[in-house]
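Long-time lurker. I teach an intro course on protein structure, and each term I like to show students one example going from raw sequence to a predicted 3D structure in token notation. This year I'd like something fresh instead of my usual example. Would anyone be willing to generate the tokens for the chain below so I can use it in lecture? Attribution to the forum is fine with me.
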Amino acid sequence: MTLQTKYEFVLPRGYVDDAGALHRKGVMRLATARDELDPLRDPTISGPDDPRLTILVLARVVEQLGTLGMVTPHEIEGLFAADLAFLQDFYGVINFGSQEEYHALLAAQQSSSPPPTPVDPEAATPAAPPAPAPTAADVPVVAAGSDAEAMADRRPRRSAIEEISAGR
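-- Reply from a regular --
Happy to contribute to a lecture. Here you go:
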């Protein structure tokens, strides 16, 4: 039996390089102790909880991303948040998880919907004018005890990202 040390992946959205090319397929290798220790010696890293540490470690273990000749911290920093989160999960599974977790991650990725189709800003149609504000006559009457009333009682959606305490 041989040890698998390299794993192919497909980013959920993909890295868009300076020329506008999309790179989704890549290869990540298993991390070594040095891959996790050397970035801690970087003078820009304040300690093991520094968020940039993840960027430096991923730049070391992602060996290939599309047709890029080399993957550096610059490319990892340019990933969309969904892709960075995916690579963090992928790193954890291939380095610390089981084969079952690896296969479950791949299955979850394959079952997820494809990324949205990009819009060419030059070909985009002009936005429609805003709709007029609703008047009292436009607001439907909700009967007491109805499903619509229950929906109206829901908490409003957050307008910004908030930290949620563990005690909630």
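Some talking points for your students: DSSP finds six helices and three strands in the chain. The helical segments are 33-37, 52-61, 73-77, 81-96, 99-111, 147-152.
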